[in-house]
Amino acid sequence: MTASKYLFLRLAIYFGYARKNVRVGEVSSESMLLKEAQTFLGEAIWQKVDQIEEISMEYWNLKKLNQDFQRISGEIQQFQNKLNENQEIRAVVLESVHTPIKELAKQRVEIISKMDQLTRIRDRISNKASEAQRKLKGLNVTLEVLRGEPDKATEISRTTERLEELKVAMEAIQREKLANAQDMAALGSELRDIEEEIADQKIHGRSKVIESSQGIGDANQQISLRRAELNIISTQMRQLYLEIGRFMSRHSKTDPECRKVCRELAGLIDVMAALQRSIHYNTRLAELS
What we know:
The protein has helices spanning 3-14, 20-45, 56-96, 99-147, 153-201, 206-251, 256-261, 266-288. By secondary structure, the chain is mainly alpha-helical. Helix 2 crosses helix 6 (206-251) and helix 4 (99-147) packs antiparallel against helix 5. The longest helix has 49 residues, at 99-147.
C-alpha cells in the first residue's frame, strides 16, 4: 500500500466506508511475505555478518548448526552406503538359495513393498488429517469472529456448513487410518510367519539373509533418526536467518557495515521496506475502522 492509497482509504473511513476484515487480512498476508523475505535475506548473507557485533551470536550459532548439519548429512550418507550394501548382499543371497526359499523370499519382498506403500499411504493420510485439522481450527476461529459481529448470519451459516463438511471428512480420514493400520498389522503378521518359515528351512544362506535384513533395518532406523535431527536443525537455522535478515533490513540504510553487506540485495530490501510501510498503513486503517 502506498501513502496516497493510505490517505484515500483514511478519507473513505471518515465518510463511513470501513473494511476492517480486508485490512486485517492484508496485514496478515503481508507480514508472512515480510517474514519470508527476511528469512531469505538472512540465509543469503549470514556468512558475511561475523563482524557485526549485534548479531554475532546469531552468526556463531548458525556456524555451529551448519557444521552439525554437514556432519549429520555425512553420517546419513554413510548409513545409506551400508543400506545399499546390505540390500545388494540380500539380493545376491536370495538369488543363490534353493527354490522354496526363493519363493518365500519373493513373498517377503512383496510384503515389504506393500508395507512401504501402506507407510506412504499412512503419511498421506496423516497429512490430510493435519490439513483438515488446520482448516477446522481456522474455521472455528472464523466462526468465533463472525459471531461477534452484526449481520453475519449468512457467513455464519456457510462457515457452519463447511465445519460440518470438515467433520465428516475427518471421520472418513479416521476410517482410512484405521483400515491402514489393520492392513499394516495383517501384513506384519504375514511377514513374521514367512520369516519363521524361512528360519525353519535352515537352508544355506539363511543367516546371511537375516543379517543383511537386520542391517537394512538398522540403517533405515539410523537414517530416520538423523533426518529428524536435520529437520530440527533446519528449523533452528531458519529462525536465525529470520533474526539476521530482520536486523540487517532495519539497519541497511543507516549502518555502513550493514549497507555494505546488503549492497547486492538492495532491491529486496526496498521491497521489504515497502511491505513494512504497507503493514503499518493497513494496521492504522484497521484500528481506525
